[in-house]
């Protein structure tokens, strides 16, 4: 941007006018904003800024106007198109009609823009189905084939779509993508387990919900709404974990990288991803017992728990072992009723 640019500082009148135009979907205002710039650099900057806000506000008229007046949408960053997660299909259709590549990703970076658009809407089944109907591929563009003996930098930065679905999507979304030939990758079960640790139904210390409410009725309603949403996400992850083990047939003791590799952010077998989440103050006993009931070897997790001083995980394993012994001695089933 030139030193004497009228766009210097996002609080300038031209920026504000463009933002207001996008918020109101007003083409007369965006026309005024564009007419206020004279240099090509300024115009391109304003185009990028306005396209982002038009998409985020689902302003179809302004977006169309911008494109008609030179805005290039062919290689928009995936996160710009995904926006806050509410981009409409009408906006996407405008982009596709004007050269946007739904499979484009920034393969040169390691941030979320290295994953295509569909990866960013994985929690919306209808949007994923729409993407597939409109040319989205389940294979990351320009990525090397998966191998058993290595994981490339590109594959570490841009996970397989089924890994994203296991972590954030529903079973229906996972199966839809699998029916399109999507590959499992190294960590679908691991990432499903990791995300399940974020949403236990009884977050925090036991009895915390029984403490006297000091906020307003509106605050209480928001609190209850958050609890309900957390419970939904937790149940969704547990359903995914059961599906991955019981239906897809994934190995509950599978490693998350080739033997001998030491990639950051990888903890080992799926149960290690519970042991590693030691600072969240969440109760993961049900999750731990589910994996143990399915044959998970607790020892790698116990080693991890010792390293990070996750005493709660160790207690959960010992409780499972005690119940298992008790059930065996009494002739009962060795399952711990965490089905």
TrEMBL record:
Membrane spanning stretches: none
Keywords: ANK repeat, Repeat
Keyword set includes Repeat: yes
InterPro entries in the record: Ankyrin_rpt-contain_sf (IPR036770), Multifunctional_regulatory (IPR050745)
Region named Disordered: 200-231, 318-339
Keyword check for Metal-binding: no
Domain of life the protein comes from: Eukaryota
Ranges of biased composition (kind: Polar residues): 327-339
PANTHER family: MYOTROPHIN
This protein's name: Ankyrin
The organism of origin for this protein: Lentithecium fluviatile CBS 122367
């Amino acid at each position: 941007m030139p030193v004497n640019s009228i766009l210097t500082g996002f609080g300038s009148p031209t920026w504000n006018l463009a933002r207001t135009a996008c918020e109101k979907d007003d083409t007369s205002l965006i026309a005024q904003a564009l007419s206020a710039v004279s240099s090509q650099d300024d115009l391109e900057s304003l185009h990028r800024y306005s396209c982002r806000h038009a998409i985020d506000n689902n302003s179809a008229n302004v977006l169309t106007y911008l494109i008609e007046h030179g805005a290039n949408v062919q290689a928009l960053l995936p996160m710009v198109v995904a926006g806050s997660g509410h981009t409409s299909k009408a906006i996407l259709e405008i982009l596709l009609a004007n050269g946007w590549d739904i499979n484009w990703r920034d393969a040169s970076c390691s941030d979320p823009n290295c994953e295509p658009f569909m990866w960013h809407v994985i929690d919306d089944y209808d949007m994923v189905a729409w993407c597939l109907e409109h040319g989205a591929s389940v294979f990351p563009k320009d990525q090397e084939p998966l191998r058993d003996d290595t994981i490339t930098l590109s594959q570490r930065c841009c996970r397989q779509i089924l890994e994203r679905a296991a972590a954030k999507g529903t079973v229906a979304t996972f199966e839809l993508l699998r029916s399109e030939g999507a590959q499992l990758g190294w960590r679908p079960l691991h990432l499903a387990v990791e995300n399940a640790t974020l949403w236990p139904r009884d977050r925090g210390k036991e009895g915390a919900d029984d403490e006297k409410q000091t906020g307003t009725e509106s605050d209480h309603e928001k609190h209850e709404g958050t609890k309900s949403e957390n419970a939904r996400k937790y149940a969704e992850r547990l359903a995914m974990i059961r599906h991955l083990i019981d239906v897809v047939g994934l190995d509950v003791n599978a490693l998350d990288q080739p033997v001998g590799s030491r990639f950051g952010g990888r903890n080992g077998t799926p149960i290690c991803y519970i042991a590693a989440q030691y600072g969240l103050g969440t109760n993961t006993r049900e999750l731990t017992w589910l994996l143990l009931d399915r044959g998970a070897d607790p020892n790698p997790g116990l080693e991890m728990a010792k390293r990070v001083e996750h005493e709660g995980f160790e207690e959960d394993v010992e409780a499972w072992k005690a119940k298992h012994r008790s059930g065996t001695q009494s002739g009962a089933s060795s399952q711990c009723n965490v089905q």
